[in-house]
Design goal:
The complex is a heterodimer.
Chain A (H helix, E strand, L loop, with lengths): L1 E10 L2 E11 L4 E5 L6 H8 L7 E6 L2 E2 L5 H7 L1 E4 L11 H8 L6 H14 L1 H5 L10 H13 L5 E5 L7 H16 L3 E6 L2 H7 L2 E6 L2 E6 L1 H5 L2 H6 L4
Parallel strand pairs in A: 3-8, 3-9, 6-7, 7-8
Antiparallel strand pairs in A: 1-2, 1-4, 4-5, 9-10
Chain B lengths: L1 H34 L6 H17 L4 H24 L7 H25 L6 E2 L9 E4 L2 E4 H23 L1 H11 L1 H6 L4 H27 L1 E2 L5 H14 L4 H20 L3 H4 L7 H10 L8 H15 L10 H4 L1
Antiparallel strand pairs in B: 1-4, 2-3
Helix pairs in contact in B: 1-5, 1-6, 1-8, 1-9, 1-10, 2-3, 2-4, 2-8, 3-8, 5-6, 5-8, 6-8, 9-10, 10-13
The chains are: A alpha/beta, B mainly alpha.
Chain lengths: ~230, ~325
């Protein structure tokens, strides 16, 4: 469904990705793990069109989207829920969700999507008229995911959905992620919470200093001495 | 009773000047909120609108058509400005964008100067004010210049429509989202080029209306006429809370009230009806508020700006900066 080949991305003269290649198949939950500054968020930003690779290509459903504008990429069915939630704090929860569906033309579909998102996150239903900035961290994360789902994406990019949240809320967020996968969404998950990521994922890629260094199923990686030492703290 | 009428007249003046400033300040604030660009060429859009209006009215185009013509023309200039000058430097440091806007202002002013010269006109021309905007309206014993009533009404309609636009329509919501977080707005699928162009278009349309009203008020136009209004609009936006659309409106009206107050209060001792205050009080008022103070009006306005920046840098409606909250 999504295929990255040999991506090289720079911030000015600083190299962030150094030949990243991997793929995500339809219906899969793929986790991309690695330490701070390894290039996880950069990879997602490049897929969603916020960054332009200097070299390499991104294929989505066999079409080249390497130089496609971000709003067109959303229209193609890729939705990126960014790190740090980035909800619109001055807008209400309803308005945030409405903007998630900005590409959609038919109002009836939108109402159904809104209902579906609110059934995933019932707490948001009580907050619809509140401004996004007044929500708690966990609620903001739910709003960020809900907003990303409003475009009815085929592929969901999740960047650190557990960041800065209490363990119980992290558990809840990951339940939702599993539920989305069961409903047939394809998900590319970036996480620093390795345990949760390994538990939820079908396949895992490990990224270090801008390169994919390891790949496999969660089971394989859990028993990989390198992963145990670097990420699982054993 | 005469003092009450006087106060009402001055209030109408304040509101009409305020709505002019608000129309201008909103355009500045909208562009700034998304791009962090202080568009000093905004005042020159007003100037262009005034000239387009003068050309049309000289050619005996009816006022209604003239208004449509100047709005369309100014919006086109505003869009070209965004496309040619500002889009290529998007994301550049603030100093670069600020200097670019000053350069655009120079180009528009000198372009108009060359145009008038080419047409064999003097630098300053009398504005052919349409008859409907001349004269006064009488509400019982209160007479108010018709222009002020029109400014107030037009400003009110424009600002109410704008508020409907930013709170009730998807492009309006998209604009506010883009102002809060441009990257996140892109991730929603919002076409930010289109939203930024829309902000310029709306700002230009409002500047066109303000330009016509301002030209009628001044009675004459020249290629540099946009400079003072853009400064005033900037002050209004800062007073209200820079980058906030509601703040720009509030700031516009506050500035209008301040200016009218600073014009009306000096010399008020001379026109007080006899018997209203004791002669000694009247002498005191005459001493402390002499009519000669009127000339210092703009100085007082800038003092107010400095005080605002010192004690409430985020304006009346402004929220603390993100940096401050960290």
């Amino acid at each position: 469904m999504l295929k990255l080949s040999n991506l090289h991305v720079y911030y000015g003269s600083i190299r962030a990705l150094n030949g990243v290649s991997f793929q995500v198949n339809e219906g899969e939950l793929v986790a991309l793990i690695g330490s701070n500054g390894a290039g996880k968020s950069t990879t997602l930003k490049t897929i969603s069109g916020l960054l332009r690779p200097r070299q390499g290509a991104i294929l989505y459903e066999d079409a080249d989207i390497t130089r496609t504008a971000p709003d067109r990429i959303v229209a193609l069915g890729i939705s990126h829920c960014p790190e740090g939630r980035r909800i619109f704090g001055g807008l209400t929860v309803r308005e945030n969700l409405r903007l998630g569906a900005v590409q959609r033309r038919r109002r009836t579909d939108m109402a159904a999507d809104m209902e579906w998102v609110l059934s995933l996150f019932p707490i948001l239903k009580e907050r619809l008229s509140q401004s996004g900035g007044t929500l708690s961290g966990g609620e903001q994360q739910m709003l960020a995911i809900g907003r990303a789902l409003m475009s009815r994406p085929k592929l969901l990019l999740l960047d650190e959905p557990s960041l800065g949240l209490a363990p119980l809320i992290v558990e809840h967020i990951f339940q939702i992620i599993r539920q989305l996968k069961q409903q047939g969404k394809t998900i590319l998950l970036v996480e620093q919470n390795i345990h949760q990521a390994l538990d939820a994922a079908d396949r895992v890629y490990v990224i270090e200093t801008g390169q994919i260094t390891l790949t496999g199923t969660p089971e394989e990686l859990k028993h990989n001495p390198q992963v145990e030492q670097s990420y699982l703290g054993k | 009773m005469t003092m009450v009428y006087y106060a009402i007249q001055q209030t109408v003046n304040a509101l009409s000047i305020g709505s002019l400033y608000a129309l201008m300040a909103v355009g500045l604030a909208m562009v700034f909120s998304i791009l962090r660009l202080i568009n000093f060429a905004h005042g020159d859009l007003m100037m262009i609108a005034a000239y387009l209006a003068a050309f049309a009215l000289f050619a005996n185009v009816p006022l209604g058509l003239t208004v449509i013509f100047i709005i369309a023309g100014t919006v086109i200039v505003g869009l070209l400005m965004e496309r040619i000058a500002y889009r290529p430097i998007r994301g550049a440091p603030d100093v670069a964008t600020l200097l670019t806007s000053l350069a655009v202002a120079q180009i528009l002013q000198n372009g108009m100067l060359l145009t008038t010269r080419f047409l064999g006109q003097p630098i300053q021309i009398a504005f052919p004010t349409p008859a409907v905007l001349n004269g006064v309206v009488a509400f019982g014993p209160i007479t108010v210049p018709r222009l002020n009533v029109v400014s107030l009404a037009v400003g009110f309609i424009a600002l109410v429509s704008l508020s409907f636009f930013v709170t009730r329509t998807v492009p309006g919501l998209s604009m506010r989202a883009a102002a809060e977080d441009l990257t996140a707005a892109q991730l929603m699928g919002i076409n930010i080029n289109r939203i930024i162009a829309l902000a310029f278009a709306i700002g230009s349309g409002l500047a066109a209306i303000a330009g016509l009203l301002f030209a009628v008020q001044a009675g004459q136009i020249n290629p540099y006429m946009g400079f003072t209004p853009v400064l005033k609009a900037f002050i209004a936006a800062v007073i209200g809370g820079f980058g906030s659309i509601a703040g720009a409106v509030v700031g516009g009206f506050v500035l209008g009230a301040l200016e009218v107050l600073l014009t009306a209060l000096p010399g008020i001792g001379d026109i007080l009806p006899p018997g209203m205050v004791s002669p000694s009080t009247q002498a005191l008022i005459q001493q402390w508020l002499p009519s000669s103070l009127t000339g210092y009006r703009d100085a007082f306005v800038f003092v107010a700006l400095i005080l605002m920046l010192l004690f409430r840098p985020n304006g009346i409606l402004g929220r603390p900066d993100r940096e401050e909250m960290r």
